[in-house]
Amino acid sequence: MDGKPSIRGASYPEFHDWKAQARTVNHMAALGGLILTLTGDGGAEQLTTELITVDYFRALGVEAARGRTFLPEEDRTPDTHPVVVMSHNLWEERYGSDPTVLGSTLLLNDRPMTVVGIMPEGFGGVGLNTDVWITSNMISLVRQAADLEQRGSS
Question: What is residue 41's three-state secondary structure?
Answer without folding.
Answer: coil
